[in-house]
Amino acid sequence: QVQLVESGGGLVQPGGSLRLSCSASGVALDYYAIGWFRQAPGSEREVVSCISSSDEGSTYYADSVKGRFTASRDNAKNTVYLQMDNLEPGDTAVYYCAAPTSYFCYNNYHLPDLYDYWGQGTQVTVSS
Fold first, then answer.
1. pLDDT above 70 as % of the chain
2. H/E/C letters for each residue in 89-119?
């Protein structure tokens, strides 16, 4: 069983930055691709990014965050990060990390149903 825990959310002004963390215990996260999703009130859950294992080395981003968000891994800390820069009010949502039973991001990595393990989510609010 993979248990994921997100942290790092909070309130930030437009143009600011946050770094989200996704960690796990008892399992090496580098065996899994990690997807980042977000869900705003009244909206469906949408993918933000997917990062494959270090060996595979691929990272994908939604068009809405490309150039502003960066996913990365620190295998020594067994943690995956989502660095979010130049945040906009439209980025306000609960952010989740999720893992499929795969070390690579599927072609349909944007589909939540492909992910087997989910964290509890962390709130990100972008507001002045």
1. 100
2. HHHCEEEEEEECCCCCCCCCCCCHHHCCEEC
